[in-house]
Write a structure and sequence with these properties.
Elements lengths: L11 H11 L21 H15 L7 E3 L5 E3 L2 E9 L6 E10 L5 E5 L2 H4 L19 H5 L11 E2 L7 E6 L5 E6 L4 E6 L2 E6 L6 E2 L7 H6 L4 H12 L11 E3 L2 E3 L8 E7 L4 E4 L23 E3 L21 E6 L2 E7 L5 E9 L13 E9 L4 E6 L4 H12 L12 E3 L7 H13 L6 E4 L20 H10 L3 E4 L4 E3 L5 H8 L14 E3 L2 E5 L5 H10 L14 E3 L19 E2 L3 E2 H21 L11 E3 L11 E3 L7 H16 L5 E2 L1 E2 L8 H11 L5 E3 L17 H14 L1 H14 L4 E2 L1 H4 L13 E3 L4 E3 L9 E6 L4 E4 L5 E3 L2 E6 L7 E4 L2 E5 L15 E6 L6 E8 L11 E9 L4 E6 L7 H9 L5 E7 L10 E6 L7 E10 L8 E5 L9 E4 L2 H10 L3
Parallel strand pairs: 22-23, 22-35, 23-24, 28-31, 31-32, 32-33, 34-35, 45-49
Antiparallel strand pairs: 1-3, 2-3, 3-4, 4-5, 5-21, 6-7, 7-8, 8-9, 9-10, 10-14, 11-14, 12-13, 14-20, 15-17, 16-19, 17-18, 18-21, 19-20, 25-27, 26-27, 29-30, 36-37, 37-38, 38-43, 39-42, 40-41, 40-43, 44-45, 46-47, 47-48, 48-53, 49-52, 50-51, 50-53, 51-52
Bound molecules: 2-acetamido-2-deoxy-beta-D-glucopyranose.
């Protein structure tokens, strides 16, 4: 939900107030308002650095003015220190830039470059600013949670040639950083081969502090022309100063008290044709180039969290969140960089045919990808990952920024949202209708209208008269409520929340140090500053049950508008010269701002009541590296158009490989009314988003799944049931994400990193490690899809076991009622087949295991289970099984993956699961030899007296046409938390059969 231009609040006073103040600024639009957002050449530092790069590229005689002073270099305990000198004037002054290169245990290297003058505070701020003088050095404090252990085995390479310093690092000494002193640059090598290059093209640029020559200011009156000339004379560098000291955009002026302070660097990936990452953009997974030409953008990718109204498709424009992590991929290698900077950032991408080393053909690609990173302020602080696999990248990035928090089980089920369910009776009615139509759902959401006049922590006394009863009704089927709470606090009388915010002085400040006031949904508002620990503490207090009256244990929270969205601010956000806790300028922390807010909400939900310790659920729109630790995200205000459905898949896949996989797009499209076909197809795609929510704008017609009628309602219900049936597989994928950083839905390259034909594929996905391959329909009128298969394993249709074999594209039927979903051979997929009204009601349901044999006749799979609610799993209260089908021995077995966790909490949990069993085993691609087989033998572990063995009938279905043979064992009765084996083999089964139980 968001953005004001289409807002028609139900209260005429509110409408009037908003219109009166804002209608002169904004006009309702049908597509994104480009003029509301900067292009690179409207953002001073981007324009300067892009121009600089162009000048450098065009010049034949130019040398980069940065040199590492060899006498400054020290190396100790895995860290190199030194000073890079920036030559300002020939033979004269130099700016000193302290350098550290740290080599980490994980094989990752970290390079930081600071500026001595600013670090020491030896600069003057203009306009009597109270801002800090240092370059912002706390991004790591918010983004990083680990992975920083230094690799003490890193060593200087004594054989480095004159003018270079080389450091050997990484396990087994496989990595080497080759540091060139002048001009300063670094090459990162793995196994002797260069993978990542810093400053290859000489675009390194640290805008050192300089005093504004105020003399010029006096002469200003005499004319613009003269001023520029004088400044140039004064500086004698020929640089364009026009954007150094002040910038205006859309009627807002940025006072820039520290002058120009950008940092920029070119980073090249030799031999890599594909780069992925740097969400959030509505673009393809494999990023396009940005300097014009065919199928290319002519603007750099931008990272500056913003409330972009009716965003457009296929664009490098910024969106709501930012993760400055990029990975480059080629056959046999994945590498990457994480640019730890929270200021406005732009990234140019170009590709170059690589002719340098023809001998390397076949190993390396023929294309180099070159990138150019530009941030407005802050440190240069870059992590370099040398892979070599995509799994290494996501794990190492996750070690630094944290893994996805394990959500409650309801959070991965279906969420029903709308702006707005208008009364508590409306909510109860929707809830009843879902039941009437037998449609499963877990969570119903409330957008801003539930509040009294947009005052968060209140309920509208006329429309939400009795929130308690409403939530009690939801709780009957273990359902939840998610109301919205945003960071803007209504600036009004008789509202204790704003009174406290002001009195305790916890709001973001304007450039003069007074509490900043801007406009948002409530009208005049202030913004809680969650960079301030005192603000976080206060925020936590607001969610206590006796403070947020009407909230209940099944209430969870949605944080929207936390970019932050400010209707009358520059680019719909805060002025950059606003001040946060510690007097950091908003400029420095902008992209982190939203994360501090949703994290504070997360913390608040853990402390609502003493003794009630359950996993919180918070949805956020703005995000940064680290947001995965405390929130889920959605892709913001999309539209009910086929193109938006299509774009959602690469966007969600990109979130996955960028460390924030708990993501989804609004099903149905937020703005506009989807056709019944689009709505149906969107549900069929939405069941594959890790975060799965239907949502709609206030001006749209109702579209809950029971609305469209036959056959759409039935088809949507089938899709929802498929999501619920596979919840055990989804939950297991979440567990994997939360322990290894692996994405929940995975693009082709991640599963098949050696398959060069599939690197750019972003319209199909694998669910976790299950081998489930889905290709959602995103085209109107389609009755089939083309699924790309990367390997020579057999793939089977999920529903009828039609087999598809051979690398390449396969046509899979997809009439409206069909969801294209294949199972890759080699996996065992856990399901729960009994349709229920909510996931909570499935808690003790039995399991079905689908064993999909690979070409060798083997299969493997895992299942992770816990109470789905508390943190007890951190003390061992979980079930984690490994299922294997051994084709040679013809045995299916379940083994424990939980090593050494036999705690009291664990035993207690296992007890609650004691009766939960496997009710069905399906073997897809069953061997022909089973045709005449009548029985299998089931053996379950346990104490002597509880050990059980029995024979069961095997039901065999022969292959038919393209449909594979399959077999079923019904009701083996084995317990899900126990070890067991089922013998399908002739010999053993026969032996057991005659020898024992009978
Ligand atoms: C999240 O909140 C905790 C507790 O207040 C705090 O220690 C941590 O720094 C916060 N992290 C972020 C990213 O805001």
């Amino acid at each position: 939900m968001s953005s004001l231009r289409q807002k028609s609040a139900p209260r005429w006073t509110a409408v009037f107030l908003l219109c009166a103040v804002l209608c002169c600024l904004f006009v309702p639009a049908v597509t994104v308002k480009h003029e509301n957002f900067k292009k690179c050449d409207q953002s001073g530092f981007c324009k300067r650095n892009r121009q600089f790069a162009d000048d450098v590229s065009a010049s034949s005689s130019w040398t980069a003015p940065y040199a590492l002073d060899p006498t400054s270099i020290t190396f100790e305990k895995g860290q190199l220190n030194g000073v890079v000198l920036k030559i300002l004037k020939e033979g004269e002054e130099k700016a000193r830039l302290p350098l550290t290169v740290t080599f980490l245990d994980s094989g990752v290297a970290r390079v930081t470059l600071d500026e001595e003058k600013r670090a020491k505070g030896e600069i003057d701020l203009r306009h009597d600013s109270k801002a800090r003088k240092e370059r912002y050095n706390e991004a790591g404090k918010w983004a990083l949670v680990g992975g920083l252990k230094v690799f003490e085995g890193a060593a200087l390479n004594a054989e480095a040639e004159q003018g270079y310093t080389k450091v050997v690092y990484g396990k087994g000494g496989k990595h080497q950083a080759v540091i060139r002193h002048a001009p300063f640059g670094i090459e990162f090598q793995r196994d002797g081969e260069t993978q990542v290059k810093f400053n290859e093209r000489g675009f390194l640029n640290v805008e050192h502090w300089r005093a504004k020559v105020e003399k010029v200011e006096e002469e200003k009156k005499e004319g613009e022309e003269e001023k520029v000339e004088d400044e140039k004379k004064e500086d004698a560098t020929g640089e364009d100063e026009s954007t150094w000291w002040e910038e205006s955009f859309g009627g807002n002026t940025d006072s820039k008290p520290r002058g120009p302070e950008a940092v920029a660097l070119d980073i090249s990936f030799p031999g890599y044709e594909h780069v992925f990452g740097i969400p959030e953009h509505a673009t393809r997974l494999s990023l396009k180039t940005t300097k014009g030409g065919d199928n290319a953008y002519d603007e750099p990718y931008r990272l500056y969290n913003a409330d972009v109204f009716e965003y457009e498709m296929d664009s490098p424009m910024t969106l709501y969140g930012a993760i400055p992590f990029m990975q480059a991929h080629r056959k046999g290698s994945t590498v990457g960089v994480f640019w730890l900077n929270a200021a406005e950032t732009w990234i140019d991408i170009t590709k170059k045919k690589n002719t340098a080393n023809p001998l390397a053909l076949g190993v390396k690609g023929h294309t180099d990808t070159q990138t150019h990173w530009m941030s407005e302020s802050g440190l240069l602080d870059i992590f370099v990952f040398l892979g070599p696999t995509p799994q290494d990248l996501t794990r190492q990035y996750g070690e630094l920024t944290g893994f996805t928090a394990m959500p409650q089980s309801f959070a991965i089920a279906y969420h029903q949202c709308r702006w707005n369910y208008v009364t508590d009776d409306d909510v109860k009615d929707v809830d009843r209708r879902f039941d009437k139509f037998n449609i499963p759902y877990d969570v119903i959401w409330l957008d801003i209208e539930y509040t009294q006049e947009k005052k968060y922590f209140t309920w509208d006394p006329l429309t939400f008269v009795n929130p308690e009863t409403m939530q009690k009704q939801l709780a009957k089927r273990d359902r939840k409520l998610v109301p919205i709470i945003d960071p803007h606090i209504k600036n009004t009388d008789n509202y204790p929340v704003i009174d406290e915010l002001k009195k305790k002085d916890l709001a973001v400040k304007n450039k003069d140090g007074n509490q900043y006031e801007g406009w948002c949904w409530p009208g005049s508002s202030m913004w809680v500053d969650c960079f301030n620990p005192a603000a976080i503490d206060w925020w936590k207090g607001l969610f206590k049950y006796d403070k947020f009256k009407g909230s209940a244990p099944n209430t969870f929270i949605w944080n929207d508008m936390n970019e932050p969205s400010v209707f009358n601010g520059p680019e719909t956000t805060m002025p950059k010269d606003n001040l946060h806790h510690g007097n950091w300028e908003h400029r420095d922390v902008h992209n982190i701002n939203g994360m501090t807010f949703h994290n504070a909400t997360y913390q608040a939900l853990t402390e609502r009541k003493k003794g009630e310790l359950r996993r919180p659920f918070v949805l956020t729109r703005a995000f940064y590296s680290g947001s995965q630790r405390s929130a889920a995200m959605w892709t913001g205000d999309n539209q009910a158009e086929w193109a938006h459905l299509e774009a959602s898949l690469p966007m969600v896949l990109n979130q996955g490989i960028s460390g924030f996989p708990f993501s989804g797009a609004d099903v149905g499209g937020f703005f506009g009314n989807p056709s019944k076909e689009l709505l149906t197809r969107w549900y069929q795609a939405g069941i594959y988003y890790p975060f799965f929510r239907g949502h709609a704008h206030i001006d749209t017609r109702r579209r809950e799944p029971y609305i469209p009628g036959s056959p759409y309602t039935e088809i949507i219900t089938q899709a929802l049931r498929l999501r619920y049936q596979l919840l055990p597989a989804w939950y297991t994928a979440f567990h994997e994400a939360s322990t290894t950083g692996a994405p929940i839905i995975r693009p082709n390259f991640y599963i098949h990193p050696e398959d060069d034909n599939g690197f750019a594929i972003d319209d199909q996905l694998y669910i976790g490690s299950t081998g489930l391959l889905a290709k959602p329909v995103t085209k109107e009128g389609a009755d089939s899809v083309s699924v790309y298969i990367a390997d020579d394993q057999p793939y089977y249709d999920y529903f009828d076991y039609t087999s598809y074999r051979g690398a390449g594209h396969h046509t899979v039927p997809a009439p409206l009622e069909k969801i294209p979903l294949l199972m890759q051979g080699g996996h065992i997929i856990p399901r729960r087949d009994r349709p229920r009204r909510s996931s909570g009601l499935m808690k003790f349901d039995p399991f079905t295991l689908v064993v999909v044999l690979d070409k060798a006749g083997d299969a493997e799979g895992t299942l992770y289970l816990d109470d789905g609610e508390t943190f007890d799993y951190q003390q061992g209260a979980f079930i984690h099984r490994q299922f294997s089908f051994d084709g040679a021995r013809q045995v299916l077995s379940s083994a424990n993956l939980d090593i050494g966790h036999r705690t009291v909490k664990c035993e207690k949990y296992l007890k609650t699961m004691e009766k939960v069993r496997v009710e069905k085993i399906i073997i897809v691609g069953a061997p022909k030899a089973w045709k005449n087989k009548e029985e299998v033998v089931v053996l379950e572990e346990g104490q002597k007296e509880t050990r059980r063995k029995k024979s069961l009938p095997l039901e065999y279905h022969a292959a038919e046409g393209k449909k594979a043979a399959w077999a079923v064992v019904r009701d083996p009765g084995v317990w899900i938390g126990r070890g067991w084996r089922i013998d399908f083999g002739d010999k053993v089964a026969g032996h057991e059969h005659h020898g024992h139980e009978h």
